[in-house]
Design brief:
- InterPro entries: AB_hydrolase_fold, Tle1-like_cat.
- There is one protein chain.
- It contains 17 helices and 16 strands.
- By secondary structure, the chain is of the alpha/beta class.
């Protein structure tokens, strides 16, 4: 029987699935008391960018498209202490989350619908895995869903030669080992949908994520083994999180200042050019993992990455409330204006720097930290200190062996990485490093590589053109932005032996929502500082001094 029998012609809908990060649960919005770390009273939870984006979405776009919003809480948000620890520290439950999100799509998809997957951290892994499932096996019919668990385990283990199938005859006997042949048989038996009735391939319209980490952030350390806890990600290594040609758009915001070794970023690379290549956009921002994905009390950096993601999604048709950026900004202002002064305890070995910018900027804006100058948190605390450190390396990542996770030594090429202008501004305005203890030095760019800031004349085709606008409240670029071919870039300035294939990383241009946030944050004067093409020599001198300081500290 036809899966869509009885369906009348209706306007296709947009299904937006929001997969939150570890310990994040906006259905509850409350962080329970804990013993480790010891917090005797519960607190309201600071929402992640996944939560905030889901609340910015309109129910109907201006063209009448119904936007169906599905929010899924992160791992480690169960009611028990065991779930909190096993889900939070070890990623337990991710497979279940993948099945739940996939099931929602399979149950609600009708021909022509747009599927958009949004995620942060392990929620980003969930989103990417679901996109991989849709590429690998399509969308199961209601008949296929009757055998979903067995099919899921088969798909999960397509590349696992040692997999022992405990359902050898489900969904059919003599199951092909090859993924394409398996999918073909699912189609023949009406267990899955790969094409819509008009013959077009069912695709994922977009995957939009903040800082996916390659090992799920699970520390593979001896302490976990001694505690009798699982300490490997091999249960999840066969999930397909690669960038399939059946994903139309892929957006990722990456954290420059996350240095926990298990949190190495899962950078995307376009490798499928047979079909229409994926529109891939990956941008590096200042801050640690949750600075970029949201969840810390100081949301200034997360506001920037949220506005950036909203711009990417708006550019492909997703519709947001007109006042979304205003509300985000107002909440940040309220946070700073009600923030108690920093602790001056005599037991601190070092004290934070009070002024978080150059004197002129600090005096003008205090107590509200303006654009790009929010606090960078140190994520390397507690048990994470045992897992080791590793500075991230934009533009220098290699392809990994899908089975072992080890580097193949082959450089990634088509990653479409860019650096956000907030990095340059933070360095330029004397922003601070982790926990406000030192000046910001951005080791990922200025020590690793290193990369040198420059300004050159170059013709760049931006995914979001400067003429783009999302209505009267989200403006287009100014005239000088539109006409100038001067662009800030980061040029590789390291040894030739380690030189990347792409030796120039372009600075990302601002989209309409980002411009609005910047104007609210700093006013027109500071807005021009971000987009200004003048005074290049002064800024190059500032960055060059930071590079030299980094080299001296390494010597």
């Amino acid at each position: 029987m036809d899966e869509y029998e009885g369906q009348k012609h209706v306007h296709p809908k947009r299904i937006v699935l929001c997969c939150d990060g570890t310990w994040m649960d906006s259905d509850d919005g409350f962080t329970k008391p804990t013993l480790i770390p010891y917090k005797p009273t519960g607190t309201l939870q600071t929402p992640s960018n996944v939560t905030r984006l889901s609340r910015c979405l309109r129910r109907y776009a201006p063209d009448g498209t119904h936007q169906i919003i599905y929010y899924h809480s992160g791992v480690g948000t169960g009611s028990s202490v065991l779930d909190t620890l096993s889900g939070g520290m070890l990623g337990t439950g991710i497979s279940e989350h993948i099945r739940e999100v996939y099931s929602f799509i399979a149950a609600n998809y009708t021909p022509g619908d747009e599927i958009i997957l949004v995620g942060f951290s392990r929620g980003a892994f969930t989103a990417r895995s679901v996109a991989g499932m849709i590429s690998d096996i399509g969308l199961l019919t209601r008949y296929g869903m009757s055998n979903f668990y067995a099919i899921f385990k088969d798909q999960e283990n397509f590349r696992n030669a040692s997999y022992k199938d405990i359902f050898p005859d489900i969904p059919f006997p003599d199951k092909p080992k090859d993924g394409d042949e398996y999918k073909k048989k699912l189609v023949e038996q009406n267990l899955t949908r790969v094409h819509d009735p008009n013959g077009s391939r069912i695709r994922v319209h977009a995957v939009a994520v903040w800082d996916t980490v390659g090992s799920l952030g699970i520390p593979n350390i001896a302490l976990l083994a001694k505690l009798g806890l699982p300490h490997s990600t091999k249960e999840y290594k066969f999930h397909d999180t690669n960038l399939s040609g059946y994903i139309r758009h892929a957006f990722q915001a990456l954290a420059l200042d996350e240095h926990r070794r298990p949190f190495s970023p899962a950078v995307w690379e376009i490798r499928d050019f047979e079909d229409e290549p994926t529109d891939l956009r990956q941008v590096w921002f200042p801050g640690s993992h949750a600075n970029v994905g949201g969840g810390y009390d100081d949301q200034e950096i997360a506001n920037i990455t949220l506005a950036w993601m909203m711009d990417q999604l708006a550019s492909i048709g997703v519709s947001f409330h007109d006042d979304a950026i205003d509300i985000i900004f107002q909440k940040s202002v309220h946070y700073y204006e009600t923030l108690p002064p920093p602790s001056t305890s005599i037991f601190r070995f070092s004290k934070p720097i009070n002024e978080w910018a150059t004197p002129a900027v600090y005096e003008k804006h205090h107590p509200v930290r303006p654009w790009a100058l929010g606090k960078i948190y140190n994520s390397d605390t507690g048990i994470w200190t045992l897992a080791g450190k590793e500075t991230r390396t934009p533009g220098l990542y290699h392809r990994l062996d899908p089975d072992t996770g080890a580097s193949t030594g082959v450089p990634m090429t088509h990653t479409n990485e860019r650096i956000h202008s907030s990095v340059r501004i933070r360095l330029d305005l004397g922003g601070l490093g982790e926990e406000d203890m030192t000046k910001y030095k951005c080791p990922a760019l200025l020590k690793k590589g290193p990369w040198r800031l420059d300004q050159i004349r170059i013709k760049v085709t931006d995914p979001i053109p400067p003429t783009a606008t999302w209505g009267p409240t989200a403006p287009a670029a100014l005239d000088d932005e539109r006409t100038s071919d001067l662009r800030w870039v980061w040029e590789y300035d390291g040894p030739e032996k380690n030189a990347p294939v792409i030796q120039t990383i372009i600075e990302e241009n601002l989209g309409p929502y980002e411009r609005k946030l910047l104007l609210l944050n700093k006013g027109k004067g500071m807005f021009h500082k971000v987009i200004d093409v003048a005074n290049a020599d002064d800024r190059r001198a500032i960055i060059s001094a930071e590079i030299d300081a980094g080299r001296e500290s390494d010597a």
